[in-house]
Each structure stands twice: as C-alpha cells, then as structure tokens.
Recover the amino acids of this structure.
C-alpha cells in the first residue's frame, strides 16, 4: 500500500539522518565536517519526517542539505550521493494532488539509486587502484580471485545492477539480490557500512514491494521481449560510455584544481602526480623498538631518492623527503630511510609516513597518496611492547 511505502521511507531516511547527526557527518559516514549547524540541520529534517504535514518540508530540507554538501565537498564528489535528490523529490511530490507529479516519485528514487551504483562502478574502472587498496586491507573480499580481475568484474556487476534498477528489469529479484550483497559486505566493514547503506536498503525495500509503480518503466514501451532485450543492451553500453566521459573529465579537473596553488598557499596540503606503473615510487613503513630507548622508523622505498639538500625547493621527479605523522599529526620531516623517535606515550598510536616532493607536496600514484601506516601499542615499562 502507498501509505506503507511512505512509512518505510520516513523511517529509513530518519534513521540515516539521526545516525549521521550523532556521528558529526553530513548525509553519509564518510562526509565528515566541522560545520556544526549543518550537522544539526539533519536532526531538524529527521524531526520533520515524524509529522505527515511536514513531510514536504523535510524533502526541501534534504535538498538544502545536499546543496550544503556541494558547497563543502564539491559537485563532483556529491554525485556519489545523488540518491538524496531522488529522496527529496519523493517526499515533495508523493502525496501531491497533481497526478503527473505524484507519478514521478518512485521513478526519481529508482533513477538516482541506479545512477549512484553506475557512478561507483565507473569509479572502479577509471581508478582501479582505489579498490585494490581496499582489497589489500580486506583480501577475503576477492574470494581468492586475482585483484585486477575482481575489481573489473565488480565494477561491471555494479554498473549492470544500477542499470537494471534504472530500467526496472526483474525489479523484485534485483532488490533482494542487491540487499543480500550489501548485508554480506556489512559483515566485513561493520557498523559504518550498515549506516552508509541504510538509505539504499530503504529504497530497495520500497522497490521490492512497490515495483516500478504506476509509471511505465524505461524501454518497457517496447512490448516484444525479443526487441526489448537488445534495446536494453544497447542502452546499457551507450549509458556507460556516456557517463565514463564526465567522470574522467570531472576527476581530472578536480585533481588539477586541487594541485593549483594560489599565491602564499601551504604546499603541505597539495599533491603531485608521481606517475604510475613499475616506475612509480612506493613506500613501506616499519617501526622497530630501539634496544636502548625509543623507536626506530624504517622507510623502505623504491623509485625514490631522499634529497635533503633540495628541501623547500622546486619539485624534481623521483626525489624529495618524507613526512612522519603520529595519530594524524605531523611530527617531523624525514630525510633518509631511518628516523629515531625518542619517546612515544603509553597507549595505541597510528604511525604514518608519506612521500613528499621537494616543495612538500604529497606524492600520489593514480590519485592515491604514497603513504603507509603502522598501528603501534606502547605498553607500560613493566611489560613488553608489541607492533601490529
């Protein structure tokens, strides 16, 4: 029933917003922000969903939150969360007295959800190294398959599922399949993954019970299945190619704007592309307990030369220095493969090293910073210390 669908959406979106408010993020766990009033605005929008008469106001509030996200994180990055635009439109028109508006509520949900899945799949095709970093941390996800093949296959599956949602192909079976996949990934990534996918699960539940709604799904006007299937296949190829172009251009533009340094700007927050392939610089970090006192940090690098004599000068490919961070705070520049830390307080700490150019810009390979981290637990003197 239509009122049940509205209840599901109100509960799912409300829970997501309250979770993000509690975590101090905007719309998603990974969108961390110090703009406190925007974080609190989420709680107000969730409150508006409690009362039937204020549901359209909640829809407008979601659009405002999305616009704030564009201002804080950029339009390109917020394309990952376009589903919120579909959700806001759903709340604005679902109980409209105008049938032509009301009928667009469910298609807006499905179109934006399908787009988000396709967009994330394209990300894996354009920048597979990002997904490979995740597989290095959680190798069980690859199920023993070579990582290169797994990333490509996962991208194509994600794009296919997103497109099938767009055209409402086998909608109920599709909704159950995607829900099961996301629930399984929650077993690996834990609570944050569950929070991040709550909105998606909510829309999939609506998809499961409501189907495409009263509107005619895309390409379903082709009544003969023998004609419709080839049309769907051609549309799939065309849409994927069409979205590959703006994703590639958008990511390149974002990267270039990030590396454009205004006068007087701090280079420590800038990045420089160090290339890719076998000639790209690499970094491995190891931390050893010194027999007398403190800790010895070892930096194992390839295709990189420490050049302390050129520090703070112009960038020269293949050379530079390292920055050492403890718990996210920079503590030193490192001009060689070894560095001594005299003392680290008792407790758990994250030791991180990054490779940096002479001008202190951080080096990246395939848009991924050249860095490595080690978790270190320092125990009281009466006990031994151990490294994870």
């Amino acid at each position: 029933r239509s009122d049940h669908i509205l209840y599901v959406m109100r509960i799912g979106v409300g829970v997501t917003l309250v979770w993000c408010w509690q975590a101090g993020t905007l719309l998603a766990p990974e969108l961390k922000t110090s703009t406190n009033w925007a974080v609190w605005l989420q709680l107000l929008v969730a409150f508006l969903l409690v009362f039937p008469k204020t549901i359209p106001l909640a829809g407008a509030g979601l659009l405002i939150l999305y616009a704030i996200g564009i201002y804080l994180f950029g339009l390109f990055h917020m394309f990952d969360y376009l589903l919120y635009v579909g959700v806001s439109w759903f709340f604005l028109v679902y109980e409209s007295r105008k049938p032509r508006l009301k009928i667009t509520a469910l298609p807006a949900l499905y179109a934006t959800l399908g787009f988000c899945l396709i967009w994330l799949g394209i990300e894996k095709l354009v920048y597979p190294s990002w997904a490979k970093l995740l597989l290095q941390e959680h190798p069980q996800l690859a199920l023993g398959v070579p990582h290169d093949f797994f990333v490509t296959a996962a991208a194509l599956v994600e794009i296919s599922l997103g497109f099938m949602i767009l055209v409402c192909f086998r909608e109920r079976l599709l909704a159950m399949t995607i829900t099961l996949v996301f629930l399984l990934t929650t077993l690996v990534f834990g609570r944050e993954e569950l929070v991040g996918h709550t909105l998606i699960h909510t829309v999939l539940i609506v998809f499961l019970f409501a189907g495409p709604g009263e509107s005619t799904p895309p390409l379903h006007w082709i009544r003969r299945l023998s004609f419709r299937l080839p049309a769907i296949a051609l549309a799939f190829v065309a849409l994927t190619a069409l979205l590959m172009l703006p994703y590639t251009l958008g990511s390149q533009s974002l990267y270039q704007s990030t590396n454009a340094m205004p006068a007087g700007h701090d280079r420590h927050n800038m990045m420089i592309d160090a290339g890719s392939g076998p000639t790209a610089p690499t970094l491995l970090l190891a931390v050893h307990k010194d027999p007398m006192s403190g800790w010895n940090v070892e930096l194992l690098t390839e295709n990189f030369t420490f050049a302390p004599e050129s520090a703070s000068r112009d960038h020269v490919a293949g050379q530079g220095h390292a920055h050492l961070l403890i718990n996210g705070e920079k503590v030193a520049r490192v001009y060689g493969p070894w560095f001594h830390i005299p003392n680290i307080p008792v407790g758990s700490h994250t030791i991180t090293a990054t490779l940096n150019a002479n001008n202190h810009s951080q080096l990246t390979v395939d848009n991924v910073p050249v860095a490595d981290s080690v978790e270190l637990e320092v125990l009281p003197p009466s006990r031994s210390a151990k490294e994870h």
The CA atoms of residues 160 and 237 lie 10 Å apart. The two ends are 53 Å apart (CA to CA). The longest strand covers residues 347-356. Confidence is low (pLDDT under 50) at residues 258-268, 383-388.
